[in-house]
Amino acid sequence: MKKHFTIGMAGHIDHGKTSLTKALTNVDTDQLKEEKERQISIELGFAPLYEDDKLTVSIVDVPGHERFIRQMIAGVAGIQLVILVVAADEGVMPQTKEHLEILQFLGVKKGIVAITKIDKVDPEFQELVQEEIALELEGSIFENSPVINVDSLSNKGIDELTALILKELETLEVSENHDAFRMPIDQVFTVKGHGTVVRGTVYNGSLREGETLYLIPKRLVTRARQLQVHNKQADRIFAGQRAAVNLGGLSNEEVVRGDVLVSTSDFQAADVIDVALSTTQDLTQELKQRMPIKCYIGTSEVMGKIIFFDRNELGSGQEGILCQLRLDREIAARRGDRFILRRPSPAETIGGGWVIDPAGGKYRFGKKTIEQLIKKKEGSPADRVLDAIKRDKGISKEALSQETSLSAAELDEVLADPAFISYRPGHVTHYEVAVAIQKKLKETIADFHKQNSLKTGINKAELVSDLVQGMPKELAEYLISNGEEKELWIRKGSYLSSAEFVPHIPSGWCRRSESMIEAVRKDRLKVRPFKEYFTEAGLPQLLEADMMRFYTEQNILVPIDDQLSVHVEAFNQGVQELKKGTAESFEVGEAKDILGLSRKHIIPYLEKLDEVKFTRREGNIRIWVAGK
Fold it and tell me: What does DSSP say about strands 348-357 and 269-279: parallel, antiparallel, or unpaired?
C-alpha cells in the first residue's frame, strides 16, 4: 500500500520557513496579497515535495507570528514529522520555543532541525547557534533529532534535507486506511461552477469520489462530488494526504474551519471531553478551577473551561493531570486526539495533552472520579471497548472505533471474544450488559404482575418503548426475543409474562368477585349491565375494566355488547336451545320465543352469534354455520 505523508514546517517568524518550502518544492506558499505585501505568512501554505510508486510527501508551511498561532496549530495537528526552522543569524526566539512546546503537546513523533540562512553567518557563529539549539532542545522530542544547515537562496543543503526527510519517513506508519474517513477542515472557499470546496489533511481512512459524507458537529449530509490533491484530480484520497473535497448540497456559509468531514453517520460530537493535561514550563499564572480557556483540537478553536476533580489549581511543568474540558460548543474528536490550551488573556499557550474520552460525563469532585479516569486512561483495548458498550448498551462498530481509537483490525481482534454479542449486523453489545438488562426486564415483568394480577402480562410494545430511552430499539427487541428463547419469560400474543405466572383475582377481592359472577350466572341471558353487578358486589371501580378483561380471557364471561355480558354456561346453553328449536335457518321472532327474551336481549345475543361465526345473517334470517 502506498504511503502518504504531510510534514510540517514550524518556527519563529522570518526564520525562512516559506523560503525553505519554496527551495524544497519550487512552490511559493504565500498566495495572499497581504502575505506578499507584509512578507509574512498568515494562512497555511501547502506544496507537494515528493512522489514515487510507494510514497507521496507534502509540506505544510505554518505562520510563525504569534497572532496566527491558531493557524499554526491547525496546520501541524495530526502530523508525525515536523521540520523546526531556526535562523542562523538569530537563533532560538520566543515563537521557536512556543512552537516547540506546541509540537511536544501535539505528540509529533519525529523532528528535523533546519538551521537556515547559514550564508549570513560565519562557521564559528554557526557552531554557537547549534550549541544554543542543542541546549533548548534537551528533554524535547527534538533532543536527538538530526540537525542540518541550509540556505534557501543558494540551495545549500536542500538536496541533503530532502534525502533526510525521506529517510526519517521510512520508519513512520501512516494512519490505518481501513478506518472510517476523517478530515478536519482548515480552509473553506467557493469555486465558480463547482460550489463549496474544503481543504484539510486526511487524518484517517480513505475516500472515493461520489461517497456520502457527514459534516460534524452540524451533522449535515453531503457528498464528495470531486477530489483533488495539489490541484490534480483524484479518484480517491488517503490518510496522510493533503486534499480538497468539492461538497455537494452545502453552501459556503454552512461550513467553517474546525468542522470535520467523516464517512460514518455514527461519529458523535460532544462538548464535554475527558483529558490528560500537561502544562508549560513557565506559566505566568497558575491554572484555576473552571478558568476560561481556548481549546485547539484538530482545526477547531473553541472557548471553554477546565474542570479539576482532585485540586483547584495547577502550576507549571505538570504532566498527565486527569481533568475535563467543558466547551462552549460541540467538537468532533476521538480518543487519542491531541489538543492545545491557551489562555484568552493574557494570550499564551498554557498546556496541552490528549483526549481520554471524547464524550465525557458530569462527575463529582473527588478520588472516585480520578480512579474512574485512571481506568479510562490506562485500560486495555478490551477494557475501553467494554466501557463504551456499558455506556451506550449497544453500539455500532464504527462508533466503537471512534470512541476507543482502535483500528478496524484491532477492534475485530477484541470483538472475537465470544462475550461480545452481535445483536444486528455491524452492532455489538456485551454478555454482562445483556444479562444485566434481562435481569432488570425480568424484575420489571414480575413487579408488573404484582401490581396487575388480573392482566395476562405487560404489553411488549410499551416495554420496548421504555427500554429505548436508554438503548437502541434493535437491542431492546433482541434482548426481549433472546430472553424468550432462554425461557426467562413467555409471550402470549402481544403480552410478556413470567413463565410461572397465572392471572388471578387479587386475594382481597376473591369472595366478592365470586358472588358477582354467581349473580350474572343466575340471570342467564336476561342480564343487566355488567357495571351494576360490579357495584352491587362492592368491588372498587378501578378494577372494573381489568376484571372484565380477566373473566373474558378466562372464558367465564362472554361480552355480547359494550354493556351486557353473560356467563359462558348461559351463552352455550342458549345456543343448544336455539339449535334444538330451529331448522337450518331462523328469524329473530323464532329465537325470541324459544329463549324467552325481549328484543333488548335477543338482538345483541344474535349479533354475538354472528360475530363468533355460529350463524350467518342473510337479510332477516340467520343460517347455522356447518360444523359449529
Answer: antiparallel
Name the most confidently modeled range: 78-92, 368-382, 399-413.
368-382
Q: Which of 474, 473, 484 is nearest to 441 (CA)?
A: 484
In a domain, 31, yes or no: yes
Model pTM above 0.90: no
Q: Would you say residue 1 has pLDDT above 80?
A: no
Instruction: Give Cα 501 to chain centroid, integer Å.
Output: 40
Domain encompassing residue 473: 380-504
Q: Where does residue 150 rank: exposed (0-12), middle (13-18), buried (19+ CB within 10 A)?
A: buried
- Distance separating alpha carbons of residues 462 and 446, to the nearest angstrom: 15
Query: Does 270 or 47 have the greater pLDDT score?
Result: 270
Judge if 60 and 43 occupy the same domain: yes
Peptide bond connecting 346 to the previous residue in cis, omega within 30 degrees of 0: yes
At how many degrees (to 10) do helices 473-485 and 431-451 cross?
A: 80
Is residue 39 over pLDDT 70?
no
> Among 16, 395, 63, which residue's Cα sits nearest to residue 404?
395
Report which secondary-structure segment, H or E, holds 5.
strand 3-11
Torsion of CA 230, 233, 235, 237, to 10 degrees: 10
Torsion-angle region of 141 (φ positive above 0: left; ψ -120 to 50: alpha; else: beta): alpha
Grid cell listed for 287: 491554572
Indicate if 339 and 459 belong to the same structural domain.
Answer: no
| Helices and strands in the chain: count of H runs, count of E runs | 19, 35
Q: Which of 504, 538, 562 is the last residue of a domain?
A: 504
β-sheet bridge partners, residue 257: 259
- The pLDDT of residue 500 is 83
- Cα dist from 64 to 24, 89, 129, 386, 623, whole Å: 19, 17, 19, 43, 98
- If pLDDT is split at 50, 70 and 90, which confidence band does 255 have? very high
Return left, alpha or beta for 69; rule: phi > 0 is left, psi -120 to 50 is alpha, else beta.
alpha
- Give the pLDDT confidence score for residue 279 in this predicted structure: 93
Is-contact 521 569, C-beta < 8 A?
yes
